[in-house]
Inverse folding.
């Protein structure tokens, strides 16, 4: 029965290939998302079709319409659509784009975002979180009792998502710029929260290996989040990663595999690289501050040939530090009683060697701003992981005065002529 209505609903497709693709796509979407997917003649389908501003848009007939209620629904839908060749889709907010096909489609899938319309003001009334499918009128009506407003559409029936993606002219624009200039971030908080919950757990799962990565491309001015979540027991979906897995994503390559296969990564092409590092106490709010500092530092910097910034966050749990005592100790200077922390690796890769000095300067500015903010908030740890440290950093000194002096005693005993100190230019010196 599902197959029959799906094929019938795709009768508007222009050729047999599109018909089959649409049928497959709608069938899979309904299997995954149930009643959130509607077909022609159903009330939800008709409600979306009747809500368009222009007759050109309303005249198109999608094979099925998805009305997601969560960001996860959207992520699941896009993942499904992406696996079906020939399955095309449209995205509808409040439907104020007049041209046919901008927010609706013939024979494909229309994703009606209007169910994602939540509006929440933060505690100090400085930031409002708005669902992509909300109308600006809904936002203004919510904010009115607080005597605050936001740079949004002049016509309240226009949608938040569409206006913002296009730039967005507001009554406030002469004062604050385009609507898009006033966006703080596009839903990254969920990743920070999930990462922090894992890192700060007093019962850190010892089978957990996690790297939360954020990549920024200076040419396209886009961010990409990529998490490497590895569990060292043969469990496909361990509970420790449940919160992270619930964050909307465009792909998930979870599988049971061997370390030999997992570690067999493709070689990176020859490029210029730099590393720098710092260690912090867990804090969701501070991770957002790190992102804001990086975004504001990187946004206007685009050297010839471009640069990709790769920021990785890795847990440094106290349980990991406890093993040193069982094996006679080490000189790294981090102790279990310090509590759980996380290491940040700030790296950059770029093709043009003429940009070396400029990239290094920007990286130092970003790290200095982050460390200053962390220190002011009592979140900066002294430890600098030597394998991630920049040449200008002092990882050996970060081990503590006592451990540093011990290393110097070893140097004096085994290298009295300072051969390794003076005849080996590279690396960090005592």
């Amino acid at each position: 029965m599902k197959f029959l209505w799906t094929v019938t609903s795709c009768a508007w497709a222009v050729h047999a290939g599109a018909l089959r693709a649409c049928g497959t796509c709608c069938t899979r979407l309904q299997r995954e998302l149930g009643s959130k997917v509607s077909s022609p003649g159903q009330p939800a389908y008709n409600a979306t079709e009747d809500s368009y501003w222009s007759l050109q848009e309303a005249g198109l007939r999608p094979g099925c319409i998805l009305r997601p209620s969560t960001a996860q629904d959207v992520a699941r839908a896009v993942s499904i659509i992406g696996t079906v060749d020939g399955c095309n889709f449209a995205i509808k907010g409040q439907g104020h784009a007049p041209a046919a096909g901008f927010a609706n489609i013939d024979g494909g899938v229309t994703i009606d975002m209007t169910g994602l319309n939540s509006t929440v003001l933060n505690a100090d009334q400085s930031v409002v979180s708005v669902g992509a499918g909300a109308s600006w009128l809904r936002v203004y009506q919510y904010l009115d009792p607080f005597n605050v407003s936001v740079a949004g559409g002049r016509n309240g029936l226009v949608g938040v998502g569409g206006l913002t993606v296009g730039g967005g002219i507001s009554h406030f624009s002469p004062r604050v710029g385009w609507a898009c200039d006033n966006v703080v971030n596009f839903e990254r908080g969920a990743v920070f929260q999930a990462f922090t919950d894992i890192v700060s757990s007093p019962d850190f799962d010892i089978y957990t290996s996690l790297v939360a990565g954020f990549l920024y491309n200076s040419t396209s001015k886009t961010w990409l989040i990529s998490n490497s979540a590895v569990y060292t027991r043969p469990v496909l979906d361990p509970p420790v990663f449940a919160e992270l897995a619930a964050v909307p994503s465009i792909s998930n390559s979870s599988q049971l595999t061997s370390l030999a296969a997992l570690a067999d990564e493709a070689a990176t092409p020859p490029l210029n690289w730099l590393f720098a590092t710092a260690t912090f106490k867990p804090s969701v709010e501070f991770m957002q501050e790190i992102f804001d500092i990086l975004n504001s530092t990187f946004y206007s910097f685009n050297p010839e040939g471009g640069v990709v910034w790769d920021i990785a966050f890795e847990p440094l749990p106290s349980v990991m530090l406890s093993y040193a005592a069982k094996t006679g100790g080490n000189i790294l200077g981090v102790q279990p009683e310090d509590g759980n922390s996380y290491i940040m690796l700030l790296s950059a890769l770029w093709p043009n060697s003429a940009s070396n000095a400029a990239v290094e300067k920007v990286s130092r500015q970003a790290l200095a701003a982050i460390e200053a903010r962390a220190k002011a908030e009592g979140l900066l740890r002294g430890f600098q992981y030597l394998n991630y440290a920049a040449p200008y950093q002092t990882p050996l000194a970060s081990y503590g005065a006592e451990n540093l002096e011990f290393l110097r005693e070893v140097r004096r005993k085994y290298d009295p002529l300072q051969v390794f100190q003076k005849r080996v230019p590279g690396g960090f010196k005592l």
Q: What stands out?
A: Residues 356-376 form the longest helix (21 residues). Residues 1-16 have pLDDT under 50 and may be disordered. The longest strand covers residues 208-217.
